[in-house]
Design goal:
Chain lengths: 232, 232
DNA sequence: GTATATTGTTAGATTATTCTAACAAATTTA
DNA sequence: TAAATTTGTTAGAATAATCTAACAATATAC
């Protein structure tokens, strides 16, 4: 057969591919229950879709084994993530949305099939490399760079860091950060760390001073750019 | 039953609603074969979807009779058209697309459920009332104004007109207009009209002179803004 | 190491959207 | 008006995406 047309992935399939991609990056192996949980479908539904994706050559799956994306599936997923993150960045930088408002919209816009639309966004923004939450934007070939930030919970008193990304971009967490005026790029100086509960006192924006719980610190990814005292 | 949730129209249903709305505006009555033809589906498919839309309260349908949108269906359709036309205008005025490139993208973007996204577009553009092809943009209540332009084929020699809208926005026609540098807002002076084939010679942009076939003239909607000689 | 809990699978059903085939109604042509 | 054409309907089937119920395999806890 010469004229076999390769069917485009449906919106549903695209969401599964993206979920597999994101879960694999966050947790390593992806099993059916995690996938079902992430997409809020039943396990039989996830099971059945994984078989469909395997038939399409996007993943490998053996009964009772974790699901693994093929290079093809990984690229498909990365290109959807690219559209998602370009959209989020466009909404924030060109349309005035807050970083807590853009995920839901991008969840829909990422399924638009119009490469010129996203190329134009990219061009208008000057080819950004990260989204509004600090996550890297895959390139047109689906390659994604590993930014290797440290969690703020690993920082030591005396160190100065820059808030570079988040490991949680939920609306609730973003709204918490808004209420503290914590934005990406903020310089934080670690004043002290409480041994009992691992909470950290930081100063930032010249005068402000805040106590951040361990829960929060874990979700803040930072670049450690200067160390005045790393003895403790 | 107090807690009956009213299901949102699917993308498919939205496309049917829009087709019914557009066909009704262009041709008056809408029958199943026109609808099927417009959406490139079989007649049984269109027939079945019309029954579905009736169950949802969006249209009225009796066997062998034309399909009629209810006020509810008309509003639903108009709000999708609003999203479509706002998107087209945004793509042209804010993202640098040509008027011949935007329809296909808008056909997808119109199905995004995020009112703030479209409100923001609207605001950024200063609340435009027409799309890049001169078609009116329905307001937030789904009301649409009737602009009542005349076709250029009705204009008489000596008259001066402004190109205000198109009754055909196909890529092919738009590319034809591009090749002639005919854009909305262009002032045209009707030099003469050939009785044999109804073609019209116009002058515009100071020096240019063009012969436009009847076929083209019919698709050009104009505002007649001055009449130096309407005797013929 | 058995019992319990969790995870995964299969089977079978449902809803949405589409098709083709066959037939019926309505309209147009002759 | 009768024949031919077009338009519309019904029936029946297919595919995609989902579910619940029942059972099976794997992992965890005691
Ligand atoms: Mn996101
Ligand atoms: Mn999505
Ligand atoms: Mn359009
Ligand atoms: Mn559409």
């Amino acid at each position: 057969m010469i004229n076999q047309i390769v069917q485009m992935a449906s919106t549903t399939e695209e969401n599964y591919l993206k979920a597999l991609f994101n879960l694999a990056n966050e947790r390593g192996e992806v099993n059916i229950s995690e996938l079902a949980n992430q997409l809020e479908v039943s396990m039989p539904t996830a099971n059945s879709m994984v078989k469909t994706l395997q038939k399409a050559g996007s993943c490998i799956y053996e009964k009772y084994k974790p699901v693994v994306l093929t290079p093809k599936g990984k690229k498909e997923a990365a290109l959807i993530v690219r559209k998602h993150r370009l959209t989020e960045m466009f909404l924030v930088t060109k349309m005035g949305f807050g970083w807590e408002e853009v995920h839901e919209i991008a969840e829909q816009v990422e399924h638009i099939h119009a490469s010129k639309f996203f190329e134009r966004m990219d061009e208008m923004m000057g080819y950004p490399t990260v989204d509004p939450h600090g996550s890297p934007i895959p390139d047109k070939q689906g390659r994604i760079q590993d930014l290797q930030f440290k969690s703020l919970s690993e920082a030591k008193p005396g160190q100065e860091v820059i808030l570079a990304a988040l490991s949680d971009s939920s609306t609730e967490f973003l709204e918490y950060l808004n209420s503290r005026k914590l934005t990406l790029g903020t310089e934080l100086k670690i004043i002290s760390k409480e041994a009992f509960d691992q909470s950290i006192v930081v100063s930032f924006l010249d005068s402000e001073k805040e106590t951040l719980s361990q829960k929060v610190c874990e979700k803040l990814l930072v670049k450690i750019f200067e160390s005045k005292d790393s003895s403790q």
